[in-house]
Every structure is written in C-alpha cells, then in structure tokens.
Amino acid sequence: MGSGDPFGNEAVQEVAVGMGGIRTAGDLVLRMQLSRGMKINEAKAYVAEKLGVSVRALSDCTVMREIRQDLDLGYPMPEAGAAKGIEAKIRIADLLGIRINSVERFKSKTALQ
Amino acid sequence: MEKHFTRMGDGSPLYLDRKEICSELAEGVSDAVRRGKIPPLSTEEVDYLFEIITSPVNVTSVARGSETVTSSDSGAFKISYQANISMDRATAIQVHEKVLGADSLDLGNIDYSYKAVKAILHDEAKVMENVQLNTVMPVLYGAMPNLGLYTRPDGPVENWSELLPRGKIAEARAAQEEAVELAVKDMSYIAGGMYEAGADGMNFDTCGASGDADVLAALKAIEAIKQKYPGLGIEMGMSGEFILGMHGRLEYMGTRLAGLYPHQQVTVAEKAGVSIFGPVVNTNSNKSFPWNLARAVTFIRACTEAARIPVHVNVGMGVGATPMTPVPPADAVSRASKALIEIGKADGL
C-alpha cells in the first residue's frame, strides 16, 4: 500500500482489488506470504486446501464469514462469545500449521506451554 | 476524435484522445525499458492498459478470483496523526482490521525511523503486546533505516552531505560505512525487542532514502535478524525505483547496490532473507497518468518475473502510478492497482 488518505488508498484498494482481511481469508493468505514467502497463487491454494474451499471462495465474504464463524477464526461484526484477537490466532496457527509469534508468547505467559 | 478522461501525475484532470493516450503509453513503456534494460510490455498488454485507462466507470476492479492482499508502511498513524483524529495507534489498527478490511498493518512511531525508536523501545513494545492480544491479522513493526539521522549535528558520524560538496569523497564514504554499522546494531536491537513483544514481522520501509549505504544497512540487519529469529517475517520496502550511489562502491554479497532497479533489488533482498519485497516506481507529476502507469507496470512486471518471494508494490501517493496528492483519486488508484496486479503480476500492494 502506501501514503495517501485512508479513503483514497485503503478503502479504494480493498474494494477494487483486495481480499478484505478478516472479512474473507485475506489475513490468512498474507500470513502464508509472510511466514513461508509464498507468492499469491501458492498462498491462496495453501489456505484454500486447509479450509476445504475453492480459491475463489477465499475472497467471498459471505462464504468466508460462515467458515470463520464455524471455525471461530475471528471476523468483523462478531457476535458475543466469538473468538477475538489472540483467541482466534491460536486457532489460526493450528489450522494453517504455522508458528505465530504472539501465540507462542501467549502460551508462555499463561503457562500453557 | 473522442476525448477520454484521465489525469496528470499530480492528479489534475486531463482529457486525451485515443492517439494521445497510445502515444503516452508507448513512451512510458519505452522509458522503463531504456532505464531498467528490461523487456517491454506486449502489444496485447498495452492494449489492455488502454482499456483499463479509458473504462467509463469511476472505480474499476480486478476480475473475480484475482483479488490480492495488502501490507502497509504508515505505522498505523494514518488515522491518528495524519488524518488528525484523536485515536491511539492500537485502536487505529483495529479500525484498519475490522472496518477497512486490511490484511495486515504495521505499527510504527511517528518519527518512523529505527534510530528514534531505540530510546523508546520499551514503550513501543508494550503497544505491540496490546495490539497482538486484540488483533487477528498479522501486525508488523515498521520504520525506516534513515541513515541520515546518524550524521552530525544530530548523530555521531560526519555528515556526508556536507563532505561530498567539498570533494571529500573518501571521508564521505568512511562516514557512510560507519553509519551502516551503527544502524545495523540499532535495527537488530529493535527487532529483538519486537520479537519478544510478539510481532509477526518487521517492516524495513523506505530503504535507500539515504542512498546505497541505507540499503546496505537494511540488508545486513535483515540477514542478522533472520539468523537469530528465523521465524520472524521481514518486509522490505524501497524509497525509490533506483538506488542512489551516495557511496557508490558498496556491495551486498558481490552485487554493487548503486544503480539497481526493482528487478535487481528483489534478488539481493531474497539473499538477505526478506519474506515480502516492496518495490517503488516513482510517479512523475509532470507526466500523464497513462505514461506513469505504463512505466510502472513495465518495471513491476520485470520485478515479479525475477522474484521468488511475494512482491507487494508500493501504490500510494506519488508511487506506483498513483498521482502525487494527499487525496489520491479513486479512479486513478483503482486503475493503477488493477493494472499492477493483472499485468504486473503483483502478489500484493
């Protein structure tokens, strides 16, 4: 992304070309890029396989909302009782089979590990 | 002949006919080919660029299924400091995640330079700890190597910008080499603190703002950090399309840094251990949007073809064909983003 007002950059880019973060599976795809250096198609294929959906479904907010609700992966406009923040990330680390630094820190600080 | 709405590189409206747009596109491609010594776009790709630019809609978009992801380089202070809304950075990150649909964000200090963070790392780490508890998306810590801060009178090293005009070339080079070592130490220290705070990664942003020594400092820091924390993600964003040779002789793993363009920069970034590379193509505000877009896409296509790691193109004010204005127009931003993904094959923005 880059500089410029949030309406002109973030809002426009997410609407025009973005996956949409936790509205869909954008955060999960980005995690694979950051942790494994995967290019976009490889990262999408990896996440789709883990979720058992098509690559196209990863960017569909209605499909992904149901999946994120079922798996409790964190989502916007959450109901009471939904996993939030670190709670959701513990599940994401397990789902994607990756090490998430803050999750490891949380386990250590809570003596869960 | 029908005139199509487009813009200048500063964002001001412009009307051009088909012949004029085609001429601008051809010149933009040629400029990138000449400077970068890279292949041109095909005739079909230039035709598609024309289609994207002349589309009658306001906001255009990629084909369904081609959506991509975004990382950031503004330290989470776009909403707080820049838009001047009374909101702390930790809250701003949640707004980006839950309201703006961001796929990741970086937390950063308002100075956005690693040297400035060194003295306040303990407090920055506490913000990162809170952010990590309350967010789902990846959150990195971001700042610039900003080697200039190490020069006198603010820093400990001789000022090469003062030495060079006086013809003291050797002294200027020695000062830059000294600054590199100090910056590497600071950046490694801050990365260690952020790793302990739970950060998902580090964002080395605006690399090269002080020239080739600035880039070398980032590469050496990244190499050291990856050796100590192999699981920590690293994003490296550039300051410009071309690494300035303020030193001129610096090399990283046998590659001279001065003069490298994005398709060459990404290769040295990979060697250092970068996870995501952020190339820049500067917008020329005196040229048209079609000229800038054709040029940016040509450079980025060469970069993504050379890359083995994901490439997140800088598409903000004044870079990536985005007009040089604090309020980038949605028509131009969406067209630039679409072209850089569909033709440039970007892995993210």
How do the strands and helices of this protein lay out in sequence?
The complex is a heterodimer of chains A (113) and B (349).
Chain A: H1 7-16, H2 26-36, H3 40-51, H4 61-71, H5 86-96, H6 101-109
Chain B: E1 3-7, E2 13-17, H1 18-36, H2 43-54, H3 78-82, H4 89-98, E3 105-107, H5 114-118, H6 121-134, E4 139-143, H7 160-163, H8 169-196, E5 201-207, H9 212-228, E6 233-238, E7 251-252, E8 255-256, H10 262-272, E9 276-278, H11 289-306, H12 330-342
Parallel strand pairs in B: 3-4, 4-5, 5-6, 6-9
Antiparallel strand pairs in B: 1-2, 7-8
Helix pairs in contact in B: 1-2, 1-11, 4-6, 6-8, 8-9, 9-10, 10-11, 11-12
Q: How would you portray this structure in words?
A:
The complex is a heterodimer of chains A (113) and B (349). With 113 residues, chain A is an all-alpha fold. Helix content of chain A is 57%, strand content 0%. Chain A has a domain at 7-82. Chain A contains six helices and no strands. In chain B, helix 8 (169-196) packs parallel to helix 9. Chain B has helices spanning 18-36, 43-54, 78-82, 89-98, 114-118, 121-134, 160-163, 169-196, 212-228, 262-272, 289-306, 330-342, and strands spanning 3-7, 13-17, 105-107, 139-143, 201-207, 233-238, 251-252, 255-256, 276-278. Chain B is globular, with a radius of gyration of 20 Å. In chain B, strands 3-4-5-6-9 form a five-stranded parallel sheet. In chain B, strands 1-2 form a two-stranded antiparallel sheet. Chain B is α/β, with parallel strands linked by helices and 349 residues long.
